[in-house]
Amino acid sequence: MQSVALTAALLAAALQPPISSSSATQLQRRHVLSAAGLAVSVSPLVRLRAARAEEVASSSAGAGASATALPLAELADKEFGYRLEYPADWKAAGKPVKTHLHEALLSSPGGLKLGVTVDPVVIDSLEAFGTLDQVTERVLAVETTRDGVNSVILRTNAAQAADAARRTPSYYTIEYATDSSRGKKLFSCKYCIAGRRLYVLQLQAKLDDFDGDEAVRAQVRSIVGSFEVIVAS
Questions:
Q1: What average pLDDT does the segment 143-159 reach?
Q2: CB-CB neighbours of 8 under 10 Å
Q3: Are 119 and 198 within 8 A, CB to CB?
Q4: How confident is the model at residue 52, as a pLDDT?
Q5: Are 80 and 100 contacting, i.e. CB atoms less than 8 angstroms apart?
Q6: For the chain, what is the mean pLDDT?
Q7: How far apart are CA 39 and CA 127, in angstroms?
Q8: CA atoms within 13 A on the CB side of 175
Q9: pLDDT value at position 85?
Q10: Could you give the domains of the chain?
Q11: pLDDT digit string (tens) for 101-119?
Q12: What is the spatial distance between Cα 169 and Cα 105, in angstroms, rounded to a whole number?
């Protein structure tokens, strides 16, 4: 089964700009320490909202029945400054070997997977690395290097500009499908660079489920849309 964490690690590597030979040894040492699990240990703060299920059908909808949405949970980390919302029936998924500065993994009863990773970089923004299309090309190229991957097809991509007044960073969102020895998958990813840290949110779904079920597509895109990085003042 394809690992969200491993894919995120490859993407983090893809978003590292070229470095000079003088700094190569130091950067290599940092990645080796991280891969060995010797980086600073961080436990994400997960706060489950005790919110009531929201009624989405009005009393005039007929038949006297009301539809309700699942209660939401919030995954938030104060130290690394990010948050997102997801359905409360998702569960934390552990990982025995740490390969990032920070990592949080979740999975749904229906087989969806979510991963948030944070890694150090030497640039201050996504734009410093490249345009949306340039970064998309790099991300898809990295995905094709994975063992067993036969094809990678871009579905959609979008850029959200930074807003200095609101202290919000820029984001790139890239959605693509893969066909590999592990099956056909859909990946919806959101990237941000803030404080010289690369934030990667990745949602993974079976391609047939994503394409065939509007509820799955809505859930994936809602989670991706809720992901935000808080810029320190």
A1: 95
A2: 24
A3: yes
A4: 32
A5: no
A6: 77
A7: 27
A8: 16
A9: 96
A10: 1-18+84-233 (3.40.1000.10)
A11: 999 999 999 999 999 999 9
A12: 23
Lookup result for tokens 């067993």: 148
- Report the residue count for the chain: 233
Q: Which residue has the tokens 């840290």?
A: 197
Structure tokens at 164: 């200095």
Give pLDDT tens digits for 1-32: 345 545 555 556 655 444 333 333 333 333 33
Q: At what angle do helices 132-144 and 4-14 cross, to 10 degrees?
A: 130
**Strand ranges (E), the chain:** 45-48, 72-77, 82-87, 91-92, 102-107, 113-120, 149-160, 171-180, 183-194, 197-206, 228-229
- Average pLDDT of 136-150? 94
pLDDT for 82 equals: 96
Assigned token pair, 109? 């009863």
Tokens read off for 23: 């700094």
By C-alpha distance, which of 162, 139, 140, 155 is closest to 211?
155
Nearest to 121 by CA among 38, 52, 54, 195: 195
pLDDT digits (tens, 9 = 90+) for 163-180: 988 889 999 999 999 999
Q: What is the dihedral sign for C-alpha 200, 114, 233, 159?
A: positive
Contact by Cβ (8 Å): 117, 191: no
**Which two tokens mark 87?**
């359905």
Give me 40's structure tokens.
């600073």
